[in-house]
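Action item from last week, closing it out:
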Amino acid sequence: MSNLKRTFERKTFVKADVLAEITEKNRSRNFNFGWLVALGLTLVLLVAGLQWVNTSASYVSVDINPSIMLTTNPWEKVVEVEALNEDAETLLVNLKQIGLQVDEAVELIIAEATEMGYIDLLAEGEIAMVTAYDDDEVDEERSEKIRERIQDRLEKREMAVNVVGHEAVAEQKELANKLGVTLGKVLFVQRLQERYPTLGGDELYEMSIKDIMIKVKEIRGNGPDKEALADKKALLKLKAVNKVQERTQEFVQEFREENPGTELTDAEIIRQEVKKRIDQIRQNRKGK
């Protein structure tokens, strides 16, 4: 029982008891107040941290036939995915990439593009172009690091896809010099203008990539019809399966004609050829 309570029960008031009780209550209140302040600051820092995590740090474009722009945070986690053409809209309709590391997201895009028939693992020189942008410029060093990580992931999955950077023609280089912008900016703007003719003209080169992407979203409005895209995606996959079957049968037949008496199964022949293509890609990378 507290001194103050005993004081009331005795109907007497001892100055020392009352002062001691007040002091003790104030200590308790100060402790609680301090704890609440600490909790509040923690929550503020947590919210600020989450906002910073989702802040756009850079962009990574992926061009196969589908063209896709990934927005990443400072830890290279994907925070936004944008389709830059109709093929990309179809490919992305049910693909979940937010929160993935950028190389995981690109690998997923390439795997899906392969399944939909955009990539033929038995074809010579199959290429996926991957470029990292830091606001208005191409970050060549980061682009190369991302491409290397993606290439390693694909090779472990035995996918013979060559991941490269954008190659510009003389006209694009001349335009970049004329406008006083980076070559990466020219490649980026031209690719978008092909998809969205109403996007704008040379004024786009004076805008940041972030602002350009805002304009793209305004043009797109509410986005594509996901149900229609899902149906289209299913049809494309069905066609791709038939195409791949025909392609592999032709290849296996050619191989058996060139190697009579081989004891390899059809699956082993295909696997052997894919590994051969992967080895070629590795040799080309070493030769750079």
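Closing note: The mean pLDDT is 78.
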